[in-house]
Amino acid sequence: YQTDIIEKYGIKLISWPACLAPMKSPSEFRVLTDLKLLHNTLVEGSCCWVHLSWPEVLQHVNEHQKHMESGNEAMGQKRKTRSDKGKK
User: Fold this and answer.
1) Is 60 a domain residue?
2) For each of the chain's 88 residues, which pLDDT tens digit applies?
3) Cα–Cα distance between 23 and 85 in angstroms, integer?
């Protein structure tokens, strides 16, 4: 979300419902009521996408980079080792 959405497109989702924290893809919801709650907040406008100005995007990039360097977040997703690694 940080790099794929905010930094790439310059948009940010604000007012994500607190009861659905942490933010995740709607495809990962396992309870229909949670998905309906998210849908309703988006429809009524209490949760919405906002365009960021260029200085806001740069500020976000700098903050995210500092956060990554401090070791608070893993760099991307760690992939599973291939089953045929080291075999010929």
Assistant:
1) yes
2) 888 899 899 999 999 999 998 989 999 999 999 999 999 999 999 999 999 999 999 999 999 888 888 876 555 567 788 888 888 7
3) 35
Q: Look up tokens 């406008």; give the residue.
A: 45
DSSP state of 75: S
Radius of gyration of the chain (CA): 17
Residue 80 located in a structural domain: no
Domain count, the chain: 1
What predicted TM-score, i.e. pTM, was given to this entire model? 0.63
- Reported in sequence order, the residue ranges of the chain that DSSP labels E, i.e. its strands, are 11-14, 48-51
Strand partners, 12: 50
Report the 10 Å Cβ neighbour count for 39: 12
Q: Which of 4, 7, 13 is nearest to 56 (CA)?
A: 7
